[in-house]
Write a structure and sequence with these properties.
There is one protein chain. The protein has 190 residues and is mainly β. The chain folds into two domains: 100 residues, no CATH class; 77 residues, no CATH class. The protein is 7% helix and 29% strand. The chain has a six-stranded antiparallel beta sheet, with no helix packed on it. Strands 10-9-11 form a three-stranded antiparallel beta sheet. Strands 4-5 form a two-stranded antiparallel sheet. Strand 7 and strand 8 form a beta hairpin.
Length: 190
């Protein structure tokens, strides 16, 4: 079975939990408030052989409108078994992770888009070039390197500069939030 525990770390120190699949390499459940660590007894009285979510997931309310971009909360997701981490966004109104649900999304994002600096912000522009940012503005600014270092199968090279983590940069507002939220691969529900 390829289901493992994912810990979702919030800026206020709170940790919530989800299931992560090593088959599809993404979160495959809604958020849970509790987990069962190795050696603890689960809700059915069985001893947990590996860490897992406990209880029912917290309800997601799709009837509510999504949180405004300034209300989204940047979180850090850490998954077992290898403690792989990535940055993501949480929607407090709906009580859900809006994306990305996989670390490998950063690779896809960097392959698909370029960054353009204009109006003192970085905007996403399709690499195949239609001349517009994802938020709808004409792409007329300075192209900024979108460094690609972390992708499956590539050996680590300590001399490489770190790739941009656009979701980790969410709080400072340098990256256009409308561009990030517009990408349907990030969040088909918004």
């Amino acid at each position: 079975m390829g289901s493992w525990l994912a810990r979702v770390h919030f800026p206020n120190g709170q940790v919530r939990y989800a299931r992560y699949s090593t088959v599809v390499h993404e979160l495959v459940s809604d958020l849970h408030d509790h987990s069962c660590d190795v050696g603890e007894t689960d809700d059915l009285g069985y001893v947990c052989g590996r860490a897992q979510v406990r209880g029912e997931p917290s309800p997601v309310d799709q009837s509510k409108s999504p949180s405004e971009p300034n209300e989204l909360v940047p979180v850090r997701i850490e998954v077992e078994p290898d403690h792989m981490t990535w940055s993501a966004l949480y929607c407090p109104r709906r009580n859900e992770i809006v994306g990305p649900r996989s670390k490998f999304f950063a690779y896809t994002l960097q392959q698909t888009f370029n960054l353009v600096r204009q109006n003192s912000r970085l905007h996403l522009v399709r690499a195949d070039g239609d001349g517009r940012t994802l938020c709808g503005e004409p792409a007329a600014g300075e192209v900024t390197p979108f460094l690609l270092r972390d992708y499956p199968g590539r050996p680590e090279d300590p001399s490489d500069p770190a790739p941009r983590d656009l979701y980790a940069e969410w709080r400072d507002g340098l990256v256009c939030r409308q561009c990030l939220l517009h990408d349907q691969a990030l969040n088909p529900g918004l």
